């Protein structure tokens, strides 16, 4: 079995492990490490999740996501909006950020309102994407004015948050520009990279995190 066939097999196995319908309704093709996903899933969340699974498989260079979302012709934009708003109310951050608004046009959802940090925006987009009939989600969420702070203070807050975790802070470089935090430097493994990313996203005042952290090569 050549490398591409091994990649296809590994992606398929991961899809089946995560959710049985992925294995049935999503097909995988790999040519020279470039993966194409195609098939049908129920919502945008499943489509995005399938791509993340494929990207996590060793040997994958690029993923083209051609998965189609099954759209019931009876579902209207009004129905989609109701589903989105219902999901947003179930968000773990609902009590912190209150009601968010949503407009829907031809299955495309636009979110608007105020959030405190990047983690809350990511969660809101994720909740919206799980609603039946959603084709795409556009975020027009904005940071609350009370959490808009200068870049130096924001970096200090991120450093304080990262210091709570078992990370090698001297090997990390943190910068900020108008609410966008960039992480670079080195950590020991992928789990630490993801942990640093999530920690930075949870800091109030952080609108976006760009993660350039590299994994230290083992000697």
UniProtKB/TrEMBL annotation:
Gene3D superfamilies xref list: 3.30.1340.30
UniProt KW Lipoprotein keyword: yes
Protein keywords: Lipoprotein
Signal peptide: none
InterPro entries from the UniProt entry: BON_dom (IPR007055), Lipoprotein_DolP (IPR051686)
Residue intervals of the BON domain: 3-71, 76-145, 150-217
PANTHER family reported in the protein's UniProt record: BON DOMAIN-CONTAINING PROTEIN
Protein name: Putative periplasmic or secreted lipoprotein
Protein species of origin: Thermoanaerobacter thermohydrosulfuricus WC1
């Amino acid at each position: 079995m050549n490398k591409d066939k091994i990649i296809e097999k590994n992606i398929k196995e991961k899809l089946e492990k995560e959710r049985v319908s992925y294995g049935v309704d999503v097909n995988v093709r790999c040519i020279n490490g470039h993966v194409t996903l195609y098939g049908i899933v129920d919502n945008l969340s499943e489509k995005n999740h399938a791509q993340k699974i494929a990207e996590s498989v060793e040997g994958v260079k690029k993923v083209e996501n051609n998965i189609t979302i099954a759209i019931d012709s009876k579902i209207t934009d009004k129905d989609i909006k109701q589903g989105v708003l219902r999901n947003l109310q179930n968000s773990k951050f609902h009590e912190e950020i209150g009601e968010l608004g949503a407009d829907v046009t031809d299955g495309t959802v636009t979110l608007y309102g105020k959030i405190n940090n990047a983690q809350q925006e990511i969660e809101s987009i994720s909740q919206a994407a799980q609603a039946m009939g959603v084709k795409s989600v556009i975020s027009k969420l904005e940071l609350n004015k009370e959490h808009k702070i200068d870049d130096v203070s924001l970096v200090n807050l991120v450093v304080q948050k990262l210091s709570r975790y078992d990370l090698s802070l001297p090997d990390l470089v943190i910068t900020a520009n108008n609410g966008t935090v960039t992480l670079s430097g080195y950590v020991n493994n992928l789990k630490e990279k993801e942990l640093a990313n999530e920690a930075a996203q949870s800091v109030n005042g952080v609108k976006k995190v760009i993660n350039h952290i590299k994994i230290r090569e083992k000697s």
